[in-house]
């Protein structure tokens, strides 16, 4: 702890007397400064015990009051007036002004040199720095041993809480609470979800300091809380929160920084291990998609505890052109693995760079936690597109993958967040096609007919629609139009002339019907 005015006054060798501000003696003293200027504030930083003989202070009550106000405004923690030179005793006006501002005023007897007070404070500051360094090394050694032990990050959190005399909590990359100490602090740590989420959206490392309810934390206590993101490549890998009764001291800050460094290294090491596991999982997924399920089962049994069994789905996600969507795609993979880990649900994930940007393939249980987590992430992030296969057995994963790719293509063309394969095989074909492409095709194909209808007799577009809808039946189509069937035949002949195409061609009929229907959508 830094020296305080109280500890300086308690030094009997100095013979100091407190004349004012006795209720504020616990203020820490950061330095001792001697000045005879009537305004020494340009040379002060705050936190000083200022010593003076008062040579230039004079005896004016107004002048002494202004002097005290200047010192208090500058952050001086105490004023010591040496008697016996300029002043035989401390002026009462100075005592009154100090009492008014709550500034501790000390009487320094003539026999006590100012240098003795400076040495006392300097020795105490040196002792504080030595203690801080010693404590920091001890804490770093203790935390390092904890990080290398069996419990790893959980042990670091537990030791950190004990060192700070408060509580500590560790969150994973998604903001979920993964470790807390002591156990009773779980509720307090849970209330920081909003703050952790804010840091999750900032580059790492970043931090926030909060003071209980004054900062919007819904808690009955007034803990001083620090939340710190953990990560070495600007992407948060986790978050550390600590709560203490008072503000963290410089020594405690060293301890906290040591814990942050160790947890970051641990998370980064875990990330490298996870990356290796991801590469192995991706290889397994490609084996399954290639139909080598039996071999994949043998390999996965020893590495991953087996493959997903029962009814599965294949999901294929793609990122848009914006850089942030690539990060969202990575988050989708992380959230999928976290969702599976929480409930013990097996999955396979593979990341790849496609021709049009990064993609992610996930093989997971049908309507399981992973499936739902992927759908949730896609809904949260604009620019992601997801294709989902129909439910299938693991041996049918290759077919399911092709279904998911087709569903993804439909989602990307239609500007949709996600498309299920069941949607691709049901309903109208038109919603599955790119709107701009269909519109341009329809306008170009039907333009000669519409230009004719604007300038000449005979409604060729309506007549063509009626004829196609009746599958080329002349009498039925003519009845729908209210014209003679010979009139309709003439109009269809005119359609062929303007388009330069034969209506006997099935492909031509299909294209014309598609063009007419697109104008109705």
Write the layout of secondary structure elements.
Layout: H1 5-9, E1 17-20, E2 31-34, E3 48-52, H2 61-73, E4 78-82, H3 92-101, E5 105-108, H4 114-148, H5 153-164, E6 167-172, E7 177-181, H6 186-190, H7 193-200, E8 207-211, E9 224-230, E10 238-244, H8 250-289, H9 293-303, E11 312-318, H10 323-343, E12 348-354, E13 357-365, H11 369-380, E14 385-388, H12 397-414, E15 418-420, H13 421-424, H14 435-455, H15 460-469, H16 474-481, H17 485-499, H18 506-518
Parallel strand pairs: 2-3, 3-4, 4-5, 14-15
Antiparallel strand pairs: 1-5, 6-7, 6-10, 8-9, 9-10, 11-13, 11-14, 12-13
Helix pairs in contact: 2-3, 4-5, 4-8, 5-8, 8-9, 10-11, 14-18, 15-16, 15-17, 16-17
Question: Main attributes?
Answer:
16% strand, alpha/beta, PucR_dom, five-stranded antiparallel β-sheet, PucR family transcriptional regulator, 18 helices, elongated, 521 residues
Class by SSE composition? alpha/beta
Order of strands across the main sheet: 1-5-4-3-2
Whole-angstrom Rg? 39 Å
Could you tell me how far the N terminus lies from the C terminus, measured between alpha carbons in angstroms?
76 Å
Largest sheet entry: 5 strands, mixed
Oligomer classification: single chain
| Unreliable spans | 213-220
Number of helices: 18
- What characteristic shape results from the CA principal axes? elongated
Mean pLDDT: 85
The helix content is 40-55%
Strand content: 15-25%
Query: Count the strands?
Result: 15
Would you write up a description of this structure?
By secondary structure, the chain is of the alpha/beta class. Helices cover 50% and strands 16% of the residues. It contains 18 helices and 15 strands. The protein has helices spanning 5-9, 61-73, 92-101, 114-148, 153-164, 186-190, 193-200, 250-289, 293-303, 323-343, 369-380, 397-414, 421-424, 435-455, 460-469, 474-481, 485-499, 506-518; strands at residues 17-20, 31-34, 48-52, 78-82, 105-108, 167-172, 177-181, 207-211, 224-230, 238-244, 312-318, 348-354, 357-365, 385-388, 418-420. The strands form 3 sheets. The protein has a 5-stranded mixed β-sheet. A 5-stranded antiparallel β-sheet has the order 7-6-10-9-8, with helices on both faces. Strand 12 and strand 13 form a beta hairpin. The longest helix is centred in the middle third of the chain and has 40 residues, at 250-289. The model is unreliable at 213-220 (pLDDT under 50).
